[in-house]
Amino acid sequence: MADNHITTINPLTEEVIETYPFMSDKEAEDVVKASHEAFLDWRLKSLDERAKVIAAIGKKLREKKEEFAQLMTREVGKLIGDSRDEVDLCAAICDYTAKEGPVALADEEREVDGATAFVSHAPVGVVYGIQPWNFPAYQAVRYSIASLMAGNGVLLKHAENCTGSGEFLRDLYEEAGLPKGLFGVLRITHDQSDAIIAHDLVRGVTMTGSDKAGRHIAAKAGEVVKKTVLELGSNDAYLVLDDADLDLAVKTCVAGRLYNNGQTCVNAKRFIVTEKNYDAFVEAYAKQFDAIAMGDPTDDNTKLGPMVSREQRDKLHEQVEESVSKGARLVVGGEVPDRKGWFYPATVLADVKPGQPAYEDELFGPAASIIKAKDDHDALRIANSSRYGLGGGIFSKDVEKAKKLAADYFDTGMVFINSFDVASPSLPFGGVKDSGYGREHGPEGLKEFVNAKAIKIAKKVAA
Known about the structure:
Number of domains: 2
Oligomer: single chain
């Protein structure tokens, strides 16, 4: 932010992409009012009518996939292949929502003595979303499509780094047939954002970001008694148990750590490996990481692009250096390269222990933390000792055992067995503990911002 403007910068070239003025308080107020006014009509559309628009948005996303992907890569440094995959995921969310939304949100009849009754899933009004930069399309689509399907209006305050992507998405929605103004984009400061949370016409708030920011948002919304859905940071643990397929575990954990240049809330971050496999895992993992070359994210052959900003890169490096100073073993990487662009090498820290940032905190970039556990039971104990609980994984040849550990003992919102994944439109996405609360995706996500309204009709009494 400079001179009351937002400036987006290409992480590869360090050159300015675009400059945008912040909105005045009145301009922001007008965006809120426009969303509410459009909502008053949109809420009266049938579920099928809304679904047709949602489906059209999915089609438009596919039509503009390359243009959108190139924009995201310019703004945040994503590998171009990851940007294209992100647009595909957004289109799939639209497909799922258009098909399943009318079913999940339909009136439900309930049996009540002496009366007929049903539950209506009524829209609540304007939902305000505060979103981060790491998935410029997906983060905004994830909450907005569900809220629009439910009949709500939607506001977006996107991260400054990807301001262009937020405005691109708004225009795309309207080109696909969404009523103008229903999805409003706000270019505002943090202080202005607090005022939007308190605005009478805003009925719910959803936010993805750090747990520190989440506490602030939740407190502000709580002061005015507004529902929030928070998807916050995490330090996802992937357990490599005694009977794991080691080759599969190493290959998957490497990909899971480097996905999106390591800047994803559900990246695989902590690798908790039993003594039986520890030395072999560290050696094989480090060998694969050491072979990862940094490069231009627009090149399809590049495996690791730049981080989003100098600030993010420098913070990660400080965490790595502090972890090493407190006893972690630097196996590969760990040095800021002397080159243009905000690059950080694929870095492996082994012998990670409590008290080190690599153990306690989220490393938001391409740095892996490998932790030794005595046995399977100890590995699960270490995983659950984190203050976070978004996702996690288990590697074991005994799938039934892994399934039971995932369901009964692993204290997270999502668990991947012998695999790494980010999100599926049909499955609830969200966490526990300091990783937040509420769910996005699936029927659960479709119903987060609705008024489950009970309507009871008395039966006629005979004269």
